[in-house]
Amino acid sequence: MASLALTFGSGAMTNSIADTKKTDLFLMIGSNPDTSHPTIGLRIHQALDRGAKMIVVDPRRTKLAERADLWLRIKPGTDVALLNSMMNVIIEEDLLDKKFVEERTEDYDELVRLVKKYRPFMVEKITGIPAEQIRQAARMYAAQGRHAIFHGMGITHYITGTDRVKSIANLAMLCGKIGVEGGGCNPLRGQNNVQGACDMGALFNTLPGYTSLSNEDLFEKYERMWKVKLPRRPGKPATEVWDNIMNGDIRSLYIFGEDPAVADPNISHVQAALEKCDFVVVQDIFMTKTAQMADVVLPAACYAEKDGTFTSTERRVQRVRKAVEPPGEARPDWKIFCDLSKKMGYDMNYRSPKEVFEEISTIMTQYAGISYERLEKVGLQWPVPTADHPGTPVLHTEKFTRGKGLFIPEDYIPPVEVADQNYPLQFTTGRDLARYNFSSMTGKTRELDIISPECFAEFHPEDAKQYGIEEKDSVRLTSRRGSVVLRAKVTDRTQQGTVFATYNHVEALVNLLTLDALDRLSRTPEYKLCAIKVEIVDE
What we know:
Blueprint lengths: L24 E5 L3 H4 L1 H12 L3 E5 L5 H5 L2 E3 L6 H14 L5 H7 E2 L1 H8 L4 H8 L3 H12 L4 E5 L1 H4 L4 H14 L10 E3 L6 H6 L16 H11 L14 H6 L5 E5 L3 H4 L3 H10 L2 E6 L4 H4 L3 E4 L8 E4 L4 E5 L12 H11 L9 H11 L8 H4 L4 E2 L23 E2 L18 E6 L15 H6 L4 E4 L1 H7 L6 E5 L4 E8 L7 E5 L27 E7 L3
Parallel strand pairs: 1-2, 1-5, 2-3, 4-13, 5-6, 7-8, 8-9, 14-18, 15-17
Antiparallel strand pairs: 10-11, 11-12, 14-19, 15-18, 16-17, 16-19
Helix pairs in contact: 4-7, 4-8, 4-10, 7-8
């Protein structure tokens, strides 16, 4: 992912959520914020109410697709071909921002060379989008104005996720839509505080602040501060842990704040690995499926039961204050870590979350000017290099992290698993507005059970007719990895040939179906597309 640092660093939003008030056109691709980020979705609807334009790229007819000025009903998994074709049109019709490209970017010739072959009439056959609609989208995005790209898991949850993010960056730089209010590239992250976790170095191949494992000066600084020798090797990507357990290379796990026994792709493989693992510790706020498989469970405090900071998807560092005491033996994570460290022979002697944060601000240049005192009044968007710096609502206004932005064109690579004679339908997933992730919290709320009692598999009417499926029939979906039984919903919101389901109901574990093939750089799995077959199940 180092090659993306020029534009995104951690995959953070380049702009503020409040910038939606200034955006003239939204390009929404691989995300449905109405269900996955409803507060941001509301702001986008408000922007459309005041007259902003919108292009939606989505296989499903979402509410935003219905409001869009242009809805591109793309075949799942073909986004790189579409983005390259849009750039083909922009270059062929001389719609690019020449000044921005000349002054602020490198390797433009490489981009021209690659996208030349992605002519709209050819890409229509790949994506299913009419060539004229591809041209229209390119012209709309390249036109004058403040234009923002928003994308989500529908972009990154493929083996070509990094290729898609690079292609989005290429498009934004080509049209000079980076570094301006109301513009930029804005990934909508998958979970609360995932931005903060990545900032802190919770990645397999970076140190805190996204610094390289080859930064010997930084290692020496850490070792002086912590009085311990640190390993220089990269860690294991979380998605590779399960194969490493099965191969005997990993024998114990410490899992906190995650429920991989239901959340990871191909969960039959995950659960087999958890069973094989010699020793598993789970630290969580509820007895999740993963916790049920653990040897030791450490009860943790939830967000409302502890002090600290969260960092939101727009890079905003905010204070979190304890509202109630943790129940029973539950304790804040930092206290558990400190006590466990002491038991293991290293005296990790922090006295408060504030003291931990003070250390963070000395380690990370992005947080250097942030203090608890400043956060008492307002959240601050990193980078905040000094104590009098107001924060950075818009990234890359004058230059990129590496100086000039680097075009990194990528060819289209088809999805790993496409429909065939044995598994004739495609399967894709999304979120349920009334649920959060796998319902470990929201599944315990009776009112939400009324709103969203079960998971449905959406079938296009033509597919339902072909397989003899009627509304609310029980159907078994089967992939090469497993099966799950759901009730059917017949609707033209979903694309013909593709079955859609939400993944939020623990009673319907759709990740029994999903594919664990990994992106070559980020090691993110191809959650979003696999091949399935369907059969009706007698009640």
